[in-house]
Amino acid sequence: FAGVIVPLDKLPYYYKPMYWVSAQHYAGEAIITTQFHHDNTRICNPSGVVIDNPPWWAFAVKGKFCSEDGRFNGFKKFTGIVETAEEFIYNSDTAFLHGYKFENKDFDLFVLLCLCLVLRLFTGVAAMFINYNKR
Hints:
Layout: H1 16-21, H2 23-36, E1 42-46, E2 49-50, E3 65-67, E4 80-84, H3 85-91, H4 105-129
Antiparallel strand pairs: 1-4, 2-3, 3-4
């Protein structure tokens, strides 16, 4: 229900409230977005090795496309496009976790702290009123 495996816009309508109630959503968003914020590691999406040394006449390809072995083998042999890890994870519409935003990290922390406090209160109240001792 956290939107990690299935994004919010792909969830059936009857599961969408669980997305907003799930503590895993807020924890996952806070951890993932802070982990990959400003991560400029180049990766190939969907697969391949970055082409860093194309022939001089194909200079426009350098660092932008991927091939199976990292060599330029013609324009029809590309296996992917180069993205940074940050773009791949959450910046574009086709990103792995589109909808997760770094700007939400403070709100995520606030919600998690509120959930912890509410659960503590419920636990304290339950401890006062539930007695399993038999006399």
